[in-house]
């Protein structure tokens, strides 16, 4: 058995295949998240991903249960309602099951996943580097008490700040501004994972960056969450948990196809907000934001 080991947001992923994985299987996005070999037995919370080089059109799908847009679709398992789910990811064909698709067959806990796709010669890389890997991580992390946010995040000398906002609110701009500051590490400008580790909220970079291309394998204790809004001056206002919940739910990735898991996501959100203060940050797109944010620390 051929194996590859990854660690994303503190979640160990064991990728295994009965055949050698093609050259280029791991692309630039995943390469920083390759981990040292794991030892048996499996680690707590480990996800085992069995990779198959095969035509995904040979697979059976259950009923369509969620179609969020033009990239992927979620189906029920053809074996029944308690058999997990089947996700079809296809950037070229709007989530339809074609030869270009990658298909994820999962158990209910997303710890046993089969990924089927047709391997190609380099510079091809597996869909695990893109939507398939992201879907696995952002779903499994919910059952580990965490969430993945549409956000940027920075580590300012050991203090983590996550910045969320709708498209155009300035997440990538703020990440780039902070990247230029000494003793600052930008984790991501588009996908940030947050989970409680030892009772402390921790932010993790993920492989899936945004327009600024920031995607680092780095983590930091999270000290503040900022809801961004462009404005003619910098102004911070503390948000109550009641006000913060709808703003943040609109900016994280939720499992709408599974009511029980959706409830677990809500619990994770509440626990994160109990651990981390949230602020509305009306801000300028320049480095005048730095002292304002640091005043929170």
Residue runs with pLDDT of under 50 for 5 or more positions:
none
Let me know the average pLDDT: 93
Which quaternary structure do these chains form? Answer: single chain
Helix/strand-derived category reads alpha+beta
Number of helices: 5
Briefly note the CATH topology name of the largest domain: Phosphoenolpyruvate Carboxykinase, domain 3
Helix content range: 10-25%
What is the C-alpha radius of gyration, as a whole number of Å?
19 Å
**Main sheet record:** 8 strands, mixed
- As a percent range, the share of strand residues is 25-35%
At the first level of CATH, what is the class of the largest domain? Answer: Alpha Beta
CATH architecture call of the largest domain: Alpha-Beta Complex
The ordered string of helix (H) and strand (E) elements is EEEEEEEEHEEHEEEEEHHEH
Keywords:
five-stranded mixed barrel, eight-stranded mixed β-sheet, Phosphoenolpyruvate Carboxykinase, domain 3, 297 residues, 2 domains
Describe the structure.
The protein is an alpha+beta fold. The protein folds into two domains: 2-143, no CATH class; 146-294, Phosphoenolpyruvate Carboxykinase, domain 3 (Alpha-Beta Complex). Helix content is 17%, strand content 35%. The chain contains five helices and 16 strands. It has an eight-stranded mixed β-sheet with strand order 1-2-3-8-7-6-5-4, with helices on one face. α3 packs across α4 (259-275). The longest helix is centred in the C-terminal third of the chain and has 17 residues, at 259-275.
Brief overview:
This protein has 297 residues and is α+β, with helices and mostly antiparallel strands. Helix content is 17%, strand content 35%.
